[in-house]
Design goal:
This protein is mainly alpha-helical and 203 residues long. The protein is built from 8 helices and 3 strands, in the order αααααααβββα. Helix content is 63%, strand content 6%. α2 (16-44) packs antiparallel against α3 and α4 runs antiparallel to α5 (112-129).
Length: 203
């Protein structure tokens, strides 16, 4: 196994943008070769002389072997820079974190289940890269439309346009607003809110 010094040398010893361009070009070539092979396979089903059939089969074998080698090269590149390289993984995960944060802030209020899933994914990414979710999201103002005070203490974090609430101490429950109100009637009014987000669920 390569040590960290070797990984760092490889990481900084290549122009990643150019390498990505070359990888995309390789994939395009593989795509073209496979399409050509598909046409040749169709020819094998036709009326070919024995020698032509054998020659076509050999060419197809060579094409397929070359394509397999190209796929291996692409896989090795992606495995190294996206799995072995902590630097690249960190950049990608940070990008995912801010993409999810943008989705959360742009939530359209149509379905609170979307918001719940994004928050869960966001928590998972933040846990992976060592970010504190609470430093990046103000749960008192999770959405532009404030939660009514009468149900806020449930706690409720958000309500969609169909009156379904993202709620519960771990932020993973979804209940209709009337159900939340009914449960609150049986609770002490001094109940404190808990802003803990759900721990990312493992598949």
């Amino acid at each position: 196994m390569a040590n960290r010094g070797e990984y760092m040398e490889a990481f900084f010893g290549v122009e990643l943008y150019k390498k990505f361009e070359d990888t995309i070009s390789d994939l395009e070539n593989i795509e073209s070769d496979l399409k050509d092979i598909s046409h040749e396979v169709a020819r094998l089903g036709g009326e070919l002389e024995k020698e032509d059939r054998i020659g076509t089969a050999r060419e197809m074998r060579a094409y397929i072997y070359e394509a397999a080698q190209q796929v291996k090269d692409v896989r090795t590149f992606l495995d190294f820079y996206f799995t072995q390289s902590e630097e690249i993984s960190q950049v990608i995960l940070e990008r995912d974190a801010y993409m999810l944060l943008h989705q959360i802030h742009q939530w359209d209020f149509n379905d609170v289940r979307d918001l719940r899933d994004w928050l869960n994914d966001f928590r998972h990414v933040c846990d992976t890269i060592g970010y504190r979710v609470e430093d990046l999201i103000n749960f008192d103002k999770l959405t532009p439309y404030p939660v009514p005070d009468e149900i806020k203490r449930y706690p409720v974090y958000a309500i969609d346009k169909h009156s379904y609430c993202l709620c519960g101490k771990d932020g993973s429950e979804i209940k209709y607003i009337d159900e939340v109100k009914e449960e609150l009637e049986t609770r002490p009014k001094t109940l404190a809110r808990d802003f803990k987000l759900p721990t990312a669920k493992k598949e």
